[in-house]
Design a protein that fits this description.
about 270 residues; five-stranded mixed sheet
């Protein structure tokens, strides 16, 4: 078995256990216990995440406020639109959906939830900007855009109405454009930053007007990163969530009770929807 880092945090261990159960369909949104928990909320929002692993992609749908996992599946086995269509029936009042602005996902959400706000994850935007604006070999030439991203993050964390925050972001982009005119060496970086923000613009500000709609769906970010860094992880790879957890137990990163739980799960017949 490929080696796996033993430094899994408790949150990642919990996430992997839940993901393992959801992929086996031992967790599903129409289960009575899940429905019972959902009914505690007068209004809910859905978080849709995806993670590319090996040659496949895993989808994850959560209730955004509580973080409760509703469904998970491989893209090669099921279409996301079918999952979201079922999710529409989960609750009488779904106030919004949050995800990254993937073209296919945006079309699917618009089709299944017409008129419902589709929020784009702020943390995912900032991560993408920081990744594309890392300081280069010319040092200070790229340092200013990094500060610009940090300033943008401070604006997005503000309280206020959507129109107010949108105006502040727009003013920030105008200031960056003015700086780029004075320092042409930064122009390409600033243009890339502005183009990215404009592409995300249609879904950046719903969270300020819809109380139950969070600004980010990135609580699983470290778990996805741990999976991506695991050699062979993925449905078509040699390593799945259960294998990763077993390896973590072997390196004393998990309590013995977790292995017993995995043995019980493995002995069960998978539930088929």
């Amino acid at each position: 078995m490929p080696s796996v880092r033993s430094g899994l945090r408790p949150r990642q261990i919990s996430d992997l256990l839940i993901l393992h159960l959801a992929l086996r369909q031992d967790i599903a949104p129409d289960f009575p216990e899940v429905q019972s928990r959902l009914q505690r909320y007068r209004r809910i929002s859905l978080a849709v995440e995806c993670c590319e692993l090996a040659a496949d992609t895993v989808y994850l749908v959560r209730e955004a406020q509580s973080g409760m996992v509703l469904w998970a599946g491989w893209a090669s086995q099921v279409r996301l639109w079918a999952v979201l269509r079922r999710s529409r029936l989960l609750h009488k009042d779904i106030v919004g959906v949050i995800s990254v602005p993937d073209d296919g996902l945006c079309r699917t959400v618009a089709r299944i939830f017409p008129g419902i706000p589709h929020q784009y994850c702020h943390d995912a935007l900032l991560d993408r900007l920081m990744e594309s604006l890392k300081p280069g070999s010319n040092g200070g030439a790229a340092a200013l855009p990094v500060d610009a991203v940090k300033s943008l993050a401070e604006i997005l964390r503000r309280e206020g109405r959507s129109a107010e925050v949108a105006t502040l972001v727009d003013d920030h982009l105008l200031r960056l454009r003015a700086v780029a005119e004075v320092k042409p060496v930064c122009q390409s970086h600033m243009q890339r930053l502005e183009n990215t923000v404009r592409a995300w613009w249609p879904g950046l500000f719903h969270c300020y007007d819809v109380r139950q709609l969070p600004s980010t769906c990135s609580t699983w970010r470290e778990t996805w990163q741990a999976l991506r860094q695991t050699p062979g992880a993925g449905r078509s790879g040699s390593l799945g969530c259960e294998d990763i957890l077993r390896r973590a137990w072997e390196t004393r990163a998990l309590p013995r009770g977790t292995l017993r739980l995995l043995d019980e799960i493995a002995a069960r017949r998978p539930f088929r929807i």
